[in-house]
Amino acid sequence: MAAPTNDAGETRAPVPPTPDEVRQALRAVIDPELGDNIVDLGMVRSVAVADDGTVAVAVALTIAGCPLRSQIERDVRGRIAGMDAVAAVDLTIAEMDATEKAAVMSRARWKAREGAPDTAVPADTRVLAVASGKGGVGKSSVTVNLAVALARRGLSVGVLDADVWGFSVPRLLGMEGEIEARGGKMVPLELPVGDGVLRVLSMGFLADEDRAIMWRGLVLNRAVQQFLQDAHWGDVQYLLIDLPPGTGDVQMGLARMLPRTEMLVVTTPPVAAQQVASRAADMARRGYLRVAGVIENMSDFTCEHGTTYALFGSGGGQRLATSLGVPLVGTIPMHPDFSAGGDAGEPVALGGGELAAVFAEMARRVAEELAPVIETSGCTARLLDQVERAVAAAEG
Ligand SMILES: Nc1ncnc2c1ncn2[C@@H]1O[C@H](COP(=O)(O)OP(=O)(O)O)[C@@H](O)[C@H]1O
Ligand SMILES: [Mg+2]
Questions:
Q1: Which residue in 47, 77, 113, 248 has the most C-beta neighbors within 10 A?
Q2: Domain 19-115, CATH homologous superfamily name and number
Q3: Which of 141, 148, 339 is the pocket-test mutation for ligand 1 (most atoms within 8 Å of CB)?
Q4: Which ligand 1 atom sits nearest the alpha carbon of residue 339?
Q5: Among 51-60, 91-100, 246-255, 370-379, which stretch is predicted with the lowest mean pLDDT?
């Protein structure tokens, strides 16, 4: 997509977001213990946007010393910094006063009473959508291998194959089977990996032709919605979503249904692919999905004599990452084991070779730096407990 132009064809400078747009973007930041976003919980006290693109936000937490503080802080900064024309984020964190705490608690209780959450994905699951501008850059291979590498760390990892028309996750993981329903909800197929487990849903598991055809008849977005809402994901710590290439529909749908979704953009080194990937990133921002990082695939090729060739040029991933202001999470070389592993249904990340090490390091970065497992260490639970006890004592 070309930069916006005015009638004279000159490039217009992007304008900073309005305070309302900032609040909208902050709806993606969830307090995992309260199970709702910080805006609707009343935790965002003020938002101001200066002409120079500095966004000042004041957030009040239930307990200022809460271990969730750094996570909420990082999420708030990330969401705002990812918006167009934001020059700086000026974040103030304060502790709620007693009235605010009471209000937030009653809101949280009301939410809890209201019953079923909007999706079947637990509030403390990290949702990472793997995106690319076009097909064939290795998006599905990256999704399954990163999922495997996370599971090898002992984690429960959901894999949602949202590439409804071009699903390939079952083949790449060597999984076969049919989705069963329990209590009217789909049960993902499980694959134990080391101390962890993968829970996988894909159109490829809808073996029943009639049902599959009916499903394919649904608009793409509706199919993904059902995978998110009518499924037993259980206590997955990560949910990796293999997005269909190109289209923005599913991204927009995700932004609405699971606004805390973060995107990992897969690109190959050539500039052309980079432009497409940058378009995907742009879509993400407009849908207020945060881009968490860039992964460069098919970077270079080392032949059996040890000579390395940068077949497609190099540096594209880093350039894209820099232009988006996000980290380059990993660089995956071109390697024949990749397609062999894919064909055999044995992801390379399962093995012990060089590629497994690349994915293990990427999983480490994701789990330790980029999108750490959400710790529900109980500070709000503790607070709730205090409030409940105080109420009980008052009611005597
Ligand atoms: N790093 C790599 N080295 C060699 N082949 C790769 C690599 N990454 C992906 N491939 C191959 O490229 C093809 C497309 O990959 P795939 O993951 O299906 O892409 P996408 O989901 O983006 O369409 C597959 O045959 C896969 O085995
Ligand atoms: Mg694919």
A1: 47
A2: Fe-S cluster assembly (FSCA) (3.30.300.130)
A3: 141
A4: 27
A5: 370-379
Q: Is the pLDDT of residue 379 over 80?
A: no
Asked if 373 and 237 touch (Cβ cutoff 8 Å), the reply is: yes
Helix (H, G, I), strand (E, B) or coil at 368: helix
SS3 state of residue 50 = coil
CA 265 to chain centre: 10
DSSP secondary structure letters along 223-281: HHHHHHHSB---S-SEEEEEPPSS-SHHHHHHHHH-TT-EEEEEE-SSHHHHHHHHHHH
Which among 136, 78, 162 is positioned nearest to 277, based on CA atoms?
Answer: 136
Whether 370 is in the pocket of ligand 1, judged by its Cβ within 6 Å, is no
Question: Residue 264: what are its φ and ψ, rounded to 5°?
Answer: -110, 120
Contacts of 37-41 with C-beta under 8 Å, sequence gap 24+, read: 37/259, 37/260, 38/72, 38/76, 40/107, 41/104, 41/107, 41/108
* Domain boundaries along the sequence of the chain: 19-115, 126-370
The topology (CATH level 3) of 126-370 is: Rossmann fold (3.40.50)
**Least confident residue range of 65-69, 124-128, 240-244:** 65-69
Tell me the two tokens of residue 329. 């999470």
C-alpha of residue 314 to centroid of ligand 1, in Å:
18
Name every residue whose Cβ is closer than 8 Å to that of residue 189 and which is 6 or more positions away in sequence: 175, 177, 179, 199, 200, 201, 205
Q: Which two tokens stand for residue 355?
A: 């590629």
> Band of the pLDDT at 322, cuts 50, 70, 90?
confident
Q: Give the type of residue at 87.
A: A
In tens, the pLDDT along 143-176 reads 999 999 999 999 999 999 998 878 899 999 999 9
